[in-house]
Write a structure and sequence with these properties.
By secondary structure, the protein is an alpha/beta fold. About 30% of the residues lie in helices and about 20% in strands. The chain has a single domain, classed as Nucleotidyltransferase, domain 5 (2-Layer Sandwich). It is built from five helices and five strands; from the N terminus they run αβββαββααα. A hairpin with a 4-residue loop joins β2 and β3. α3 packs across α4. The model has no long low-confidence stretch (mean pLDDT about 85). Pfam families: DDE_3.
Length: about 190
């Protein structure tokens, strides 16, 4: 019901796209994962001690496979607004995007007021399992960014860009990983 109340009255539910948005921190304190190794050996994975990070703001629309991302050195409302502007440009003319976000301090509903084709809905507290983009972060860490060392911020940004582009290169992967039965609005 909350989704319907956030959509302008002149937009049909058939013209609504549900997007999931979140951000994740990637950096020198990186994920280590299991490795394939010859039986009887113990492979080593380097664990960095430095603390440089980049923040990847990502959004997916499971119905269409559309995505949008922004990499930033920090997380705040200004960066969130820039990310919403990118999503707004991505939504086709005549359609409306409902952006589902968690309760982070920079996820303010009033930020969508600047965009005619966006609305924001916040998830209930302590419910990350309701945001499918959490699986995207897991996929990026497991398949692209784990067991690596980064020389600095620019190296982290380059790796995050390559990882995101690898993920979105297969639209069916985006749709399958992020689709949920309960997000179908206009059917």
């Amino acid at each position: 019901m909350e989704i319907i109340l956030t959509i302008p009255w002149n937009v049909s539910l058939k013209n609504v796209d549900v997007w999931f948005q979140d951000e994740a921190r990637f950096g020198q304190q990186n994920t280590t994962t299991r490795l394939w190794a010859e039986k009887g050996t113990r492979p080593r994975a380097v664990k960095q001690q430095q603390f440089e990070y980049a923040y990847l703001f990502g959004a997916v629309c499971p119905a269409t496979g559309d995505t949008e991302a922004l990499i930033s050195p920090c997380m705040n409302m200004d960066v969130m607004e820039k990310h919403l502007a990118l999503i707004s440009k991505r939504i086709p003319e005549g359609r409306h995007g409902v952006i589902v976000v968690d309760g982070a301090a920079w996820h303010q509903v009033h930020l969508a007021d600047k965009f005619d084709n966006l609305s924001i809905i916040k998830l209930p507290p302590y419910s990350p399992e309701l945001n499918p983009i959490e699986q995207v972060w897991q996929w990026l860490r497991q398949n692209e960014l784990a067991n690596r060392c980064f020389s600095g911020y620019e190296d982290i940004v380059d790796a995050c860009s390559l990882a995101w582009n690898s993920f979105i290169s297969d639209v069916s992967r985006v749709m399958e990983l992020c689709d949920r039965d309960w997000i179908k609005v206009g059917t």
